[in-house]
Description:
This protein has helices at 3-12, 19-29, 31-40, 47-67, 73-78, 82-112, 116-122, 130-151, 156-165, 167-180, 185-208, 288-293, 331-337, 362-370, 382-385, 390-397, 411-423, and strands spanning 215-226, 229-236, 248-253, 266-269, 279-284, 301-308, 321-326, 347-353, 375-381, 404-408, 431-433. It is of the alpha/beta class. Helix 3 runs antiparallel to helix 4, helix 8 runs antiparallel to helix 10 and helix 10 packs antiparallel against helix 11. The longest helix is centred in the first third of the chain and has 31 residues, at 82-112. The mean pLDDT is 90. It binds flavin-adenine dinucleotide. Flavin-adenine dinucleotide is lined by residues 156-157, 248, 266-269, 281-284, 286-290, 328, 331, 434, 437-438. Flavin-adenine dinucleotide (FAD) is lined by residues 156-157, 248, 266-269, 281-284, 286-290, 328, 331, 434, 437-438.
Amino acid sequence: MVPCLQKAKDELVLTLPARLPLLVATALAVTPTLTWACSAGADALTWHGFARFTGFAAAGLFAVSMLLMLRLTWLDRAFRGLGHVYQAHHALGVAGFLLLLVHPLALALGALRVEPAAALRLLWPDPSSKVVFSGWLALLLFLFFFVVTVAQRMPFRRWRRWHRAMGLSYGAMVWHLVTAYRGSVAAGLALGLVTLGVLGFAHRLLAEDPPWRGLRYRITSVRRRGPKVVDLVLEPLDKALRFEAGQFVYLAMRDSPDYRACGESHPYTLTGHPDDPRLRVSVKALGFCTRHVQDVTVGTEAVVQGPFGGLFPPKTQSRPQVWIGGGIGVTPFLGRASIIAADEPSIDIVYCAANEGAALYLEDLRAFARDRSNMRIHTIYEDTDGLPTISAIESRVGSLEGKEFMLAGPPAMIDALRRALRAHGVPASRIHAEEGMAR
Ligand SMILES: Cc1cc2nc3c(=O)[nH]c(=O)nc-3n(C[C@H](O)[C@H](O)[C@H](O)COP(=O)(O)OP(=O)(O)OC[C@H]3O[C@@H](n4cnc5c(N)ncnc54)[C@H](O)[C@@H]3O)c2cc1C
């Protein structure tokens, strides 16, 4: 299958717990369409009616998709992970886009039956008609941003800028709705929904992305772990964050006299115990911002948003678990291992790294396992064992049957392991990862 179609398919297949909120979000999105359909009578069965149906549905789907961009802890909880929220954002956005493509065609087909010249006028962005022009502007902008951000591979930072610029197409769609407004209840509902979407988008841009909103912390310890990895301890300046072991936060450093921050917030896993008011994170230099973080100094202030994360669903705790972490992806297991009691079902931790020297947190994990008879630590080193395969994992942890799998690490590792586990008969509901966080 074409990679971008395969990706769209993967993203539409949300894990089970996230389906109910997705259903609620979709129901909200199609409320204007259904309201219109209930009152349209015979008009609903014409091309013109179909065009309205697709138009209202696209507007509703885009509006709810915009709301699902928000980094809200209650959305994270409802969807069992912020990644699922983003997947739903993406799925509704793509569905809205497809309906938007159909909308002008259905309108033109409707007009064709009455007057062919009118049908042609609809298929051209005629600047003398605000409705037609704004509709085409929205469609062309969506098409442009869709091709640029979805079909093209580009570095993450550039993709994020283009993806945000997609708000312009949303603005054009709002303009189209306003100019096309005819005073019906359905149109009123659609306008209300898209206004909420605009507010959501503005909130994300003005109140969530800038690193000044969130809980204030101060860095009290900076310890270099390896050539590209630094361990930080942060203490609260006001209220301390409450979190569950293995969750993550968005963290942004502020400028200090001897440190210039990158000015962005990024997701990092909390590696400490939830009872400790201090936060611990380990940051590997993987790009622009994380390279900056390597030079952070004690005393620097930071802003924390969260907590987020659905790697350890509550219902999994009664079954034996296999945690597979690749590189810095081992961080959720450092936090989680600290709260495991010795009488819980067995935990096998498989630490995948290039070699022993690169397994920076192996001793930390071994220390946890020393006090817990139910915890075993295994390693798979790429230099000597190759990449993690099912047989390599099985040879270390035993039968995979009846176990829950938590995967954390590079997206490519998670994708490969998920496919291999599924091919080996492990049900999708037993495989957990912070999916949807990577583009
Ligand atoms: C749930 C989660 C937990 C994480 N925990 C840790 C951790 O404990 N320690 C650690 O070192 N790293 C962690 N990461 C990875 C870390 O967030 C990225 O390395 C960092 O965001 C890269 O930013 P950059 O500017 O340095 O690099 P960029 O060049 O901007 O990005 C490098 C890669 O990082 C990813 N990335 C960048 N920004 C984001 C973002 N806002 N959201 C999701 N992915 C992004 C993209 O895949 C991108 O290709 C975690 C990521 C996620 C999603």
